[in-house]
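Key idea: predict the complex, not the pieces.
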Amino acid sequence: DQQVKQNSPSLSVQEGRISILNCDYTNSMFDYFLWYKKYPAEGPTFLISISSIKDKNEDGRFTVFLNKSAKHLSLHIVPSQPGDSAVYFCAASVGSSNTGKLIFGQGTTLQVKP
Amino acid sequence: DTAVSQTPKYLVTQMGNDKSIKCEQNLGHDTMYWYKQDSKKFLKIMFSYNNKELIINETVPNRFSPKSPDKAHLNLHINSLELGDSAVYFCASSRIRGNEQFFGPGTRLTVL
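Result:
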């Protein structure tokens, strides 16, 4: 039972354009969502997060949108840069459980072409 | 000045052997985690310790035993290694059960 799904294994965009990465979840108890970025042979690094009380959070070129009714979140990268090429994981947690347990999606590989 | 470090980075061993992976964090965090990334690239939590106390123990075989000598260290010991244990293992840490977790570089375990 995959509670967090990233249905697009890969995405290719041109430098300067917008990258949109999508994530769906099934557990309505999730109340905190995160995006991580991972380069080959490195660990995931935290990118941006959003609480379920918000529908948008922005940090520089990165914006995360949350649609609770659709159980869907997306990460927008504008403008995309070649250095953004990496695997992006979305993750979710039940913050009120106070365990710090994150459920990860299977990742989307983003390639930004110069 | 690495925040979360793991040793070794690569580990190749035979079935049936016992091996350990070490993890250390210098971020002053209270909570540490072990994740397994399998061949399908799923990242799944295995264990979590908060101030040396086990707080998450997913359905992991008893052959896997975490050990936390202090809150800056969380080691993973694996007995009687099996082919299916081949994966990349990531250690992570966070503030007290905080959601933003900082990951180590991973240990690629190959069981032959």
